[in-house]
Specification:
This protein is mainly α. About 15% of the residues are buried. It starts with a helix and ends with a helix. The protein has one domain (about 1-215). It is built from nine helices and no strands.
């Protein structure tokens, strides 16, 4: 029982923040979110193709609605506006993104199992874990988030070297992916993911004390 309790605690401390981060990151692959950013960044002024169409095709590819990224300036254009290196990188991105989604789904299943076990056998332990679930993410936000803000370029490079085994992510300033999704887009998106995480962790803490604590 003690071993299972310890394992369940570890599972929750790891899986809940991870699932929340991936859940928040999913907003980056929605057409409405990408369209909201339309015209907000300097690089968007250099776009000479249909912005909305390009976004719809790229997001559709990441969400399995399209099988490839061979699209033109608009729906009536048969040319291909993305370079081969961009397309290869997006294939890698889709593979990583799919892997993270599957990992998050598996983590969610483990988290649910751990919650059920602790709720059935160790309600006080579950209360403690959910009340302290924010500690690990806080260190992540302060140290990793702070580093990203201070030196985003280095953090961006480290991220890509960790997740990708080639240099296809090194693109030109006039590439479609860079025009649509410049550095500032990623900084803003990263900040939104972290803000969402903070709000969600606070919500867990509040609900935990509002509901579970009363049942003890």
């Amino acid at each position: 029982m003690k071993l299972m309790t310890l394992i369940s605690k570890g599972i929750l401390y790891i899986t809940i923040p991870f699932v929340l981060v991936i859940l928040n990151a999913n907003i980056l692959t929605t057409t409405p979110y990408l369209n909201i950013s339309k015209g907000l960044y300097e690089s968007h002024k250099d776009i000479n193709y249909d912005h909305d169409y390009a976004i719809e095709r790229i997001i559709g590819y990441l969400n399995y609605r399209y099988d490839d990224l061979y699209f033109g300036e608009d729906s009536n254009d048969d040319s291909v506006i993305m370079r081969d290196i961009e397309i290869r990188h997006m294939v890698d991105v889709k593979n990583v993104y799919t892997g993270l989604r599957l990992a998050a789904l598996g983590s969610l299943v483990l988290a649910i199992g751990a919650v059920i076990f602790l709720y059935t056998n160790q309600k006080k332990t579950l209360l403690e874990v959910l009340n302290n679930i924010w500690i690990g993410p806080l260190f992540f936000i302060v140290f990793v988030g702070g580093y990203i803000i201070i030196d985003f370029d280095t953090a961006f490079t480290v991220f890509h070297k960790l997740f990708f085994t080639n240099d296809d992510w090194i693109l030109r300033s006039d590439d479609v992916l860079i025009q649509l999704l410049p550095t500032m887009f990623w900084m803003v998106s990263g900040l939104l993911i972290l803000v969402g995480l903070v709000i969600e962790l606070f919500g867990i803490y509040w609900l935990n004390n509002k509901i579970l604590k009363k049942r003890l």
